[in-house]
């Protein structure tokens, strides 16, 4: 699976401070599992890629539950920032997936 992130989040993954990527628990994520590879591209330079592996996937019903399990540092943003990405109605309907990542190859060429 491939995703694009802004420079700040990309750099946090590259440095090892952001270890959890959050997704809606939707159809797109239905077939994503532990051990699958996640290629993370830098939005400002699509050639800049970090390869990660999902080593844990936790379902969270709410953002409160997510932040009880993981620190804002691990998620890469504060709860208020994340609620700007995922509105509460959508989270209530679908839930969230917290994918704990292990960097396989930083800045893969």
UniProtKB/TrEMBL annotation:
Domain ASCH, residue spans: 3-69
A Pfam cross-reference name: ASCH
Cross-referenced InterPro entries: ASCH_domain, PUA-like_sf
Name used for this protein in its record: ASCH domain-containing protein
